[in-house]
Fold:
Amino acid sequence: MPHPNLKRAALALTAALALAGCWSNSQRLETFLEAQGPKPGWVNASEDTFRQGETVVFKAAVQRQKDLSLGVNAARAQALSMVTMSIQSSLESAFAINQSVRSNDVEERDRVGSSLLNEISQVCKATRLTGATPRESYWEKVEYLTRDGDRTVGYNVWATVAIAERDLKRARLAAEEKAMGIATSRKDDEAKARLTESIQKLKDELAQ
Structure:
């Protein structure tokens, strides 16, 4: 049986390590210094994509930016990329990528799937996002601990990009029409059927 003194020493060491861990974690927490102003409601919105009337808004955030203006630009660029990703997501659904690559060979399945994703990505990157514009931004200045153990100051930045729902549908339509060529070249009849249905639906909605 362990000597009582050893047990007490072990308990003391455990407690000390726990306290040290808590201290270390608390030191790594950010310390709020100042803010642009009252925090807007959209900053804490649970969804990164939401609607305001007939406009679709995409929200993004970047942390601990040394330069405020660069941080704002980075957050806006990230929000804009989310618009493109929303279009890519709809195309991936049309191709049902997990089901469209029917091969028992894992390497072949990965190769074909990667190739298909790349083609879809290229279509989306080439799609013009007419009407997508920066809307709001908000920042908070914080102090935090670097990996080197130094305390430094940076900015947490949130920004939104807005696009009219009709403009987003036009961009989706253009991307899906281009993606039809991918489905044709790959002889993917199921993807062609999904794209045909989606394209017609978008055309009908835009005609209203």
Strands lie at 31-35, 49-52, 55-65, 133-145, 151-164. Helices lie at 4-28, 68-95, 97-100, 106-125, 165-185, 189-207. The chain has a mean pLDDT of 85.
